[in-house]
Each structure stands twice: as C-alpha cells, then as structure tokens.
Design a protein that fits this description.
The chain is α/β, with parallel strands linked by helices and about 425 residues long. The protein has a single domain, classed as Alpha-Beta Barrel (TIM Barrel). It contains 19 helices and ten strands. The strands form two sheets. The chain has an eight-stranded parallel β-barrel, surrounded by six helices. Strands 1-2 form a two-stranded antiparallel ribbon. Strand 9, helix 14 and strand 10 form a beta-alpha-beta unit.
C-alpha cells in the first residue's frame, strides 16, 4: 500500500521503518505510536531525500528532543567552522540541527549538512530567500519565496519553519498592543516588512495549499513559526501572541486534512508563572500538536548567561507539555556562538530536557539518575564520569584536583559523607586525622 507521509501511513494502518526505529528508541508499542502519529500528536520529521537520517519522534509520551541552531551569515561566513559545529552537535547527541544560513553559498552548505547528518535537519527558507536572490526584500515575489521552499525540500530538509500565522489581522495587533520589543522573530519581521511594503497578505498564509503541496510531496514536517513570540517577559501572553496561536491552530487542521505533519513554535521570553499556562493554551488551541519552544527565557537581564535562563524555562515548559527545545547559548543576544558557546548551550538544554522527562515519567529517564546514584554510593568515579551528561568535563574537573584519599574528592576528603557512612555500616573505625 502506498503512502505520502508518516501521518498518511499511520492513518492507513501502515508501519513504516521510521516508526519502527522510533518505537524501539522510545520503548513504545508500535500501535500506540502509530495512533499518536495519526492524530498529529507525534511527528517523525523525515524527508524522503534525507538518506543519512536516523529518525526521531517528537511529541506526546516521547523523550524531549533538542535542536541546535547554526549556519553562515554575512558577518561570519566560515563554512568549515559551521561544519565543525555540526560534528560537535552530533557528538553531543542533539536530535536536530537547524541551518539558519542567510548569506553566501547557502545551498552548498545545506547539501553538505544533510549528507553528513544523522540528525533531522530544519531550515527557515525565508532567510535563504533574502540572501539567495540578492535583491531588496520588497521586490521578492511570491513565486520566488516558494521556489526557495521547493529547493530546500528537494535537498532533503526534514522540517521547515514557515511563519504562516502572521496574517494581516494578526499584524494589526502589533502596534496598538504596546509591546516593548515588537517582533523579535527574524523570519516574522521579514514577512511583516514585506507585507507592509507591498500592502499584501502573507504569501504563506494566502497560498497555504501551495505550501502543503510541497510538504506532502517530500513528507516535510511544517514547523509553524511564531512571528509574534515575546522577545521580553513584558510582551508574553499578549493579544498578538495568542491571536497568532489561534491562527496556527486553524492551519494545523488544514495541514492534517492533507496528512502533513505539524509542529507549533512557541516563546520566547516569559516569566516563570506564565509558562505552564502557555503550554496548556498551545495544546488546547493547536489540538495537541507537538510544541517546539525557544527557552523560554525567564528573565531579560542575563546576556552571557542566557543558556541558564533558557534551561530554567525549558525544563518548566517541557515538564508541562512542550516536546522540543531549541537550545540557547551564552552568546544569545550578543554574537554568533563559538564552538564552546554551542557546547554550553547543548548541555544546558539537554539537562533541561532530561529533568522534564523525569517529571513526565518518560521511560528510562529516572533510571539514568538511579544508576548515577548507585555509582556515587559505591564511590565508583569511573562509572560516575561515564554516566555524566558531559563526561569530558567531569573527568577534567576530577583530574584537576586530586584528593589525599583516592576514593574521595577534594571537597570533603576524609569527611566524605558516603565514605563515613559506609565505614560505619561495616563496623570500621573512622579516622579523620593522620
């Protein structure tokens, strides 16, 4: 039996090889996974032309996945460095990589990335359109926008961020709503400007069926972008953000009618007390579609430490229903990330995702922590390092400061609580002085 997309296959009762891979990874029954895909609550982004992909599932009941952004820009156009970042991201177990390239040989980089990546690949075609055509934004035509989308599809991109929810009605909410930071979505701001300069509707909203034709042909998962995501905690959960979310919910239903898989993108910057409500609102308004969030960053005052502000918000968001976390690095708001920035961002986001998986009761999450606790109780330093989310850093710290007693560390030495407890339970004398 033939099928067009993973959703189409699930609805026809077909088990794909991608479903088998995801079910095995997630320790989930195939029939349950198939049902969730058929309902749109789980997606498997897997372009038919991405031959090196090892598929992952995103959505209800699955491990929280993380995404890494990278790509070349006019100010930093070093393809070799970005390829190094790809290699590091894969080594650090990121499940997705988004190519945000907007200058230079973007297609050359994208093809190389897709060819080498076992992780799913995402893009934002409107970024590429601006660089590819080398013309003023105002002069890019609707056909030219869609030509870039088709090119990304042909190259093997697994999911695309398309800001289709910013229609003219939603755009009118921006100015009167007294936002402190306006539109901070790069793709959203470009479309907003194009709409204003040309006095036209958002082409991706107006010609949404044309977009679905492309996605259905290649089995591309639509990541419906949040043009009105808050760029400051002041702007969160305002009329523009909520109205766009309502439109995204409507577009989700249209997509599902064509068996096109959908994720919804979310905030942004948001105070701690608003996060759980926003997760519930998205799941309600967007019919349970997987939620992909940037952070959210829980305060605006920490440039240089925004991997921490993001990890705090990401853990809360994922524990309350978010399915996919976009990493944020210490360089957020300041510069293009270095390799070290990227690593810090990935590790912080993986910690957030894992902490949320424990809270959600995801299979195997708590067991990892239990194994670490057993290794600590046994003072088994090699096993502790091996189980660490970043073994390289754990070993570096351990070896940089050697204790007098090999089984302890230099924080407590002979006063190590675990050592003392073990000796006491064994009936041995505890000597703290030479």
């Amino acid at each position: 039996m033939n099928y067009t997309t993973q959703m189409d296959a699930a609805r026809k009762g077909i088990i794909t090889t991608e479903m088998e891979t995801v079910a095995a990874k997630e320790k989930m029954e195939l029939e349950k996974l198939k049902k969730l895909i058929s309902l749109g609550k789980v997606v498997i982004p897997a372009n038919k032309n991405h031959k090196t992909l090892i598929p992952e599932g995103i959505g209800e009941g699955l491990r929280t996945k993380i995404n890494v952004n990278l790509g070349i820009s006019k100010d930093c156009c070093d393809i070799d460095l970005e390829i190094q970042k790809v290699e590091h991201a894969l080594a650090l177990k990121a499940e997705a990589i988004m190519d945000l390239s907007c200058f230079g040989k973007t297609r050359e980089f994208r093809k190389k990335l897709i060819e080498m990546s076992t992780a799913m690949i995402g893009t934002v075609p409107i970024y590429d359109a601006v660089g590819f055509y080398d013309k003023d934004l105002k002069d890019i035509t609707v056909d030219e926008f869609f030509r870039v989308v088709e090119e990304h599809a042909e190259d093997g991109v697994d999911f695309m961020t398309i800001h289709a929810g910013l229609n003219r009605a939603t755009a009118e909410k921006i100015k009167p709503n007294s936002r402190l930071t306006g539109i901070v979505s790069r793709g959203g701001s470009l479309l907003f400007a194009w709409m204003k300069m040309n006095n036209q509707e958002n082409p991706f909203y107006e010609h949404y069926d044309r977009l679905l034709d492309i996605c259905e042909a290649y089995d591309i998962t639509l990541s419906l972008g949040d043009s009105c995501r808050p760029g400051s905690i002041h702007d969160s959960t305002d009329a523009a953000q909520v109205e766009e979310m309502i439109v995204l919910g409507e577009l989700t239903l249209q997509s599902w009618e064509r068996n096109v898989q959908v994720m919804i993108e979310g905030p942004g910057h948001m105070a701690l007390n608003e996060i759980s409500g926003n997760m519930m609102l998205e799941k309600r308004l967007c019919h349970g579609a997987p939620f992909y969030v940037l952070g959210p960053l829980v305060t605006d005052i920490a440039p240089g430490y925004d991997h921490i502000t993001s990890a705090i918000g990401g853990a809360i968001a994922a524990a309350n229903g978010a399915d996919f976390l976009c990493y944020v690095t210490p360089a957020e708001h300041l510069r293009l990330p270095t390799l070290e920035d990227m690593k810090d961002g990935i590790i912080a986001t993986r910690i957030a995702a894992h902490a949320a998986d424990i809270a959600k009761g995801i299979s195997g999450a708590r067991e990892w922590d239990n194994e670490m606790s057993k290794a600590r109780m046994n003072l088994d330093w090699e096993k502790m390092i091996a189980l660490s989310i970043d073994p390289e850093k754990a070993r570096q710290f351990r070896e940089s400061s050697k204790p007098e007693e090999e089984e302890t560390c230099t924080m407590c030495g002979k006063m190590c609580a675990i050592r003392s407890t073990k000796l006491a339970l064994e009936g041995k004398n505890i000597q703290l002085h030479d």
